[in-house]
From TrEMBL:
Gene3D superfamilies tied to this protein: Annexin
UniProt domain comment: A pair of annexin repeats may form one binding site for calcium and phospholipid.
Keywords, alphabetical: Annexin, Calcium, Calcium/phospholipid-binding, Repeat
Transmembrane domains' residue ranges: none
Protein name: Annexin
Keyword Calcium among UniProt keywords: yes
Pfam families for this protein: Annexin
GO MF annotation: an example: calcium-dependent phospholipid binding
Alphabetized SUPFAM superfamilies for the sequence: Annexin
Key word Repeat present: yes
Organism: Cacopsylla melanoneura
The organism's place on the tree of life at top rank: Eukaryota
Family: Belongs to the annexin family.
Length: 222
């Protein structure tokens, strides 16, 4: 549903594509075409309701050309850390295309090394630099990638909080995350949520939902 209404729900789209590997993204593309008789990448490319750099990044990720997880190169990580700095905070203006290229092509294992090398070389985190150089949906998806690289559990804890924050609840995201993680790392996500937000995930859901819907979500939590 979020992918069908691309312009209206970029947060959900970002969460979905950040947390899927290349083979899962291929399946996602195939399923979208089967359900809507449209090519997902084309739909995103044609959208004018988000920035061109966000569209470009999402399209690159969805094509599934990210490197394999077991391929890491410490020497190249140093070079890419430098590239990211000089594409952003190290120059006047920002080269969003170069930042997108590195963040969409390198494996998460390689990006983790790049993040570590970035801090070693420049005395600050890539997240700190991105916050200075980017904005809007493009900033949010890059920060999501950084979060997921550092800790998928923390990434999902934050996504659950975002789904319940403010007026109204993002029910689709809440259900999707709880069900998809229930047989994997939900217990760890619950602990991380409590550590990070100083309340239990169960108490947050109890306060934010009602009726049989609340009962079903609490049953998933266990």
């Amino acid at each position: 549903r979020a992918l069908a209404g691309f312009s209206k729900d970029t947060n959900t789209i970002s969460e979905i594509i950040i947390s899927r590997n290349s083979s899962e993204l291929v399946q996602l593309n195939n399923m979208y075409q089967k359900m809507f008789n449209k090519v997902l990448v084309d739909q995103i490319s044609y959208s004018r309701s988000v920035s061109s750099h966000y569209r470009s990044l999402v399209t690159s990720i969805l094509t599934g050309f990210r490197q394999l997880e077991n391929e890491t190169d410490p020497i190249q990580a140093k070079q890419h850390a430098s590239l990211l700095y000089w594409a952003g905070e190290g120059k006047r203006g920002t080269d969003e295309r170069l930042i997108n290229k590195v963040m969409s092509y390198e494996s998460y294992a390689q990006l983790k090394i790049i993040l570590e090398e970035y801090k070693k070389q420049f005395g600050k985190t890539l997240e700190q630099s991105l916050r200075k150089e980017l904005s809007g949906d493009l900033l949010r998806i890059h920060l999501g990638i950084v979060d997921y690289i550092q800790s998928p559990v923390a990434f999902y804890a934050k996504q659950l909080e975002y789904a319940m924050r403010g007026y109204g609840t993002d029910d689709a995201s809440l259900i999707r995350i709880l069900i998809s993680r229930s047989e994997f790392d939900l217990e760890n996500i619950k602990r991380e949520y409590e550590r990070r937000f100083e309340r239990t995930l169960m108490s947050a859901i109890q306060a934010d939902t009602a009726g049989s819907y609340k009962t079903a979500l609490l049953a998933i939590l266990g």
